[in-house]
TrEMBL record:
Stated name of the protein: GNAT family N-acetyltransferase
Top-level taxon in the UniProt lineage: Bacteria
Signal sequence interval, chain numbering: none
This protein's UniProt keywords: Acyltransferase, Transferase
The keyword Acyltransferase is annotated on this UniProt entry: yes
Ranges where the N-acetyltransferase domain occurs: 4-173
Length: 174
């Protein structure tokens, strides 16, 4: 596989971010959700307004994985009060790691994950945490392989469907 580059996302990249967000979420979850719920979620979570707000948030960062300028995946991290739940100043949340289907299994997710760990260590975080859908065994295996352990659950809504996410964390002070 060609060299994968990682690039911090800025407001200039808004349309690319919107496209990769919608594409990867749809590829990952459309088989387990209704078309109606997928449309509602994609339109709300990945609207230009919402993504613009997230890009302006100094407690959130996005990174693209690219090959020859083509975006093939991305990472979203949240710090402090921008974390979706715990909001612990000594923690960092991986809110999203998504890779387009044709690049799954080619270590792109691992590169994005490694970037998240590097940033967490640079910020001297005690731990990194995330939520992963209980019906996404591939992602659960990925995080378990990387040392994450389950510590709780929370509800994640896709349209009007309330789904259970497994909350996992990795202690960085080993």
């Amino acid at each position: 596989m060609e060299k994968v580059d990682l690039k911090k996302v800025t407001l200039v990249d808004l349309e690319q971010l919107r496209k990769i967000s919608r594409k990867t979420f749809y590829e990952t979850f459309s088989s387990g959700n209704t078309e109606e719920n997928m449309k509602i979620f994609l339109d709300e979570a990945f609207s230009q307004e919402k993504l613009t707000s997230e890009l302006h948030d100094t407690n959130s960062e996005f990174y693209f994985a690219t090959i020859d300028q083509m975006v093939i995946g991305y990472l979203k991290l949240n710090f402090g009060s921008s974390q979706t739940e715990l909001q612990d100043d000594k923690a960092i949340e991986i809110e999203r790691i998504y890779v387009i289907q044709e690049f799954l299994g080619k270590k792109v997710g691992q590169l994005l994950y490694n970037k998240a760990i590097e940033i967490a260590k640079d910020k001297k975080a005690d731990y990194i945490w995330l939520g992963v859908w209980e019906e996404n065994p591939r992602a659960i295996r990925f995080y378990t392989k990387n040392g994450f352990v389950e510590f709780d659950q929370h509800i994640f809504k896709v349209g009007d469907d309330e789904q259970t996410d497994i909350m996992m964390k990795l202690n960085l002070n080993k």
